[in-house]
Amino acid sequence: MDRRSALIQMGVTAGGILAFTACRNNDKKTISSAYAKLGISEKEVGFLGDLAEVIIPSDPEVKGSDALDLKAFVLLMVNDCMKKQDQEIYMIGLRAFQKSVENQDLKDKAMETAFIKGLSGNDENPEEKSVKVFLLTTKQYTIQGFLTSKYFMTEIMPYEMMPGKFDGKFRITPGHKVNIYG
Question: Per its UniProt record, what Pfam families does this chain match (predicted)?
């Protein structure tokens, strides 16, 4: 065997080994490791899921935030789209709000009451301001995630590609699903 073919075979083998180790499934990853920039724990992720369920609750006719996994969308947006300083304020607000409702049942009306109370907080107190920022941001991203979900765009308000059909005599009947966005 000549030197050239040996070097080519070594390069291909080394590349295969590197590709194999990089593509290997790492079972140790958790949701908190995916959002490492935030430094969020599993308990805080669960709390965020409960809060998102208060914002968009499940009911027999419409899926809620638990079924659509909107907490993951909220965390993705906070992790990827917010500045580092805003992320820190968000996490301070999350922890402060979680501490304020720590002893209450999260599935009860107490969470809704705390949510409304947190939105009407005093902006002069830095902790209350961070709670307000946290609640408003969570509400915004939860609603955005719901309105842009596949479920909403296909089952609640069916989306039609442009230019769409025109029927001048079309009458909307009660219960007919109409996309209000176009």
Answer: Gluconate_2-dh3
Query: For the chain, what is the largest distance between any 2 Cα atoms, rounded to a whole number of angstroms?
Result: 81
Q: How far apart are CA 135 and CA 141, in angstroms?
A: 10
Q: Whole-angstrom Cα distance, residue 45 to residue 124? A: 28
Nearest to 42 by CA among 79, 151, 58, 34: 34
- The C-alpha atoms of residue 92 and residue 23 are separated, in whole angstroms, by 36
Q: Domain spans of the chain?
A: 31-156
- Which tops the pLDDT comparison, 80 or 22? 80
Cα-atom radius of gyration of the chain, to the nearest Å? Answer: 24
